[in-house]
Design goal:
CATH class: Alpha Beta
Strand content: 15-25%
Shape: globular
CATH topology: Rossmann fold
Order of helices and strands: EEEHEEHEHHHEHEHEEH
Number of helices: 8
Distance between the termini: 56 Å
CATH superfamily: P-loop containing nucleotide triphosphate hydrolases
Strand order of the largest sheet: 6-7-8-3-9-10
Largest sheet: 6 strands, mixed
Radius of gyration: 18 Å
Number of domains: 1
CATH architecture: 3-Layer(aba) Sandwich
Number of strands: 10
Structural class: alpha/beta
């Protein structure tokens, strides 16, 4: 079996406060502009968002709305052109790429539509991968990976490779991988996009259970029925966002309006 090479330690960054009343996500007038030749395209326009610790929030918007750009900034995959962004109390608006990578690994647990599991590794080895970058001892990594798999109901599948698991099971392995670092935020990008209705219900129920345990979850989706499972919805359109207590309220807002 191909060995997983442990990388050299990256530049470290203090993750900042992770308790008390500090919000997990705080954006103030965040903008993102992309250059396209001589043109500039504003993907986000003066976005201000506050997500408290323990919230389950869905971000909803059609293609081209700025939803993906917002997800990339929340996930520290990109940085704003303007405005301020604090993650768990730490300013990540203008830090270096090495520091961004460190923040992503230590503070954010990602769940993607495509699962992103390594086919040649058993489930527990996939789950432990974020801990490899933390330089944790192998025995402790395995123990934490097995604990995370048990939390998502896959303790009996720890030695199965992705090809031996259903789509719903693979996504639960991905959720276990997101949990294993005990991150400040779980960021789920279209996590049910490749699942059938039964697996979709199972994954959403799992996210709800994690929310009830106090996890902070941001769910990116274009499906209103999926967004209804969150406790709050942020709808994005034309690079601008607003919040609503219920998805139906946000969906009923007339085009071009802002509460």
């Amino acid at each position: 079996m191909t060995a997983v090479v442990e990388p050299a330690a990256s530049a470290s960054i203090d993750p900042g406060p992770t308790h008390g009343s500090t919000p997990v996500i705080e954006m103030v007038d965040v903008g993102k502009v992309y250059a396209a030749g001589s043109l500039e395209v504003a993907a986000l326009r003066a976005v201000s968002i506050r997500i408290e610790r323990g919230e389950f929030v869905a971000v909803v918007g059609p293609s081209g709305s700025g939803k993906s750009t917002l997800m990339h900034i929340i996930g520290c995959l990109d940085v704003p052109t303007s405005g301020a962004f604090h993650l768990a109390g730490h300013d990540v608006s203008g830090i270096s790429e090495n520091q961004l990578s460190d923040v992503r690994n230590r503070m954010i647990g990602f769940v993607f539509q495509q699962f992103n599991l390594l086919a040649y590794l058993p489930a527990w080895r996939n789950v432990e991968l974020p801990l490899v970058y933390s330089r944790m001892a192998p025995d402790e990594r395995r123990e934490r990976a097995l604990t995370a798999l048990a939390k998502v109901g896959l303790a009996d599948r720890a030695d199965h490779r992705p090809g031996e698991l259903s789509g719903g099971q693979q996504q639960r392995v991905a959720i276990a991988r997101a949990l294993v670092t005990e991150p400040a935020l779980i960021l789920a990008d279209e996590p049910t996009g490749n699942l059938d209705s039964t697996s979709t219900a199972e994954v959403l129920a799992l996210l709800e259970d994690l929310h009830l345990e106090g996890r902070t979850i941001v769910l990116i989706t274009h499906e209103t029925d999926v967004a209804t499972r969150a406790s709050r919805v942020i709808q994005i359109r034309d690079g601008q966002v607003w919040t609503a207590d219920e998805p139906a309220l946000a969906a009923s807002a007339p085009a071009g309006s802002q509460p």
